[in-house]
Design goal:
alpha+beta; Barwin-like endoglucanases; elongated
């Protein structure tokens, strides 16, 4: 029923930018609440996500994080997300083109959930192995 977001790999979705809204705080992105329920495992007003443009090369951990807000029919920006498009805060206007494809990545929220201990262990292991080889 809703065209977006489309899950391309686990907890990573493809969508388009639907527009910009004054109703969203600077740390929020909005997606039609029904599209979230039908197409994703994203929990509205709780799940953190990063956005990525296709040509962007910024490392994942340096990307800005947003809370995904469910856009209700009563909100002024509802029409911008009629098919599940991503609505950005007004402060970001001009940073992405309306209609541009974006990747909504919620992997960190579901897989890491603030526990970076395994990542730290992996980095230390990698560094230790490099030192031993040299």
């Amino acid at each position: 029923m809703y065209r977006y977001p489309v899950e391309v790999i686990a907890d990573t979705y493809l969508s388009k930018v639907g527009g910009y809204s004054y109703e969203l705080d600077r740390n929020e992105i909005g997606i039609n609440v029904k599209a979230l329920e039908m197409n994703t495992s994203i929990i509205a007003n709780e799940t953190l996500a990063t956005l990525k443009r296709f040509e962007e090369i910024r490392p994942y951990f340096l990307r800005r994080k947003f809370v995904v807000v469910g856009i209700e029919e009563s909100m002024d920006c509802y029409e911008m997300s009629a098919n599940g498009e991503v609505v950005l805060p007004e402060e970001m206007e001009g940073s992405m083109e309306v209609g541009e494809s974006v990747i909504v990545n919620t992997v960190e929220a579901f897989r890491i959930d603030g526990d970076y201990s395994n990542i730290i262990k992996a980095i230390k292991w990698r560094l230790d192995n490099q030192i031993l080889r040299n």
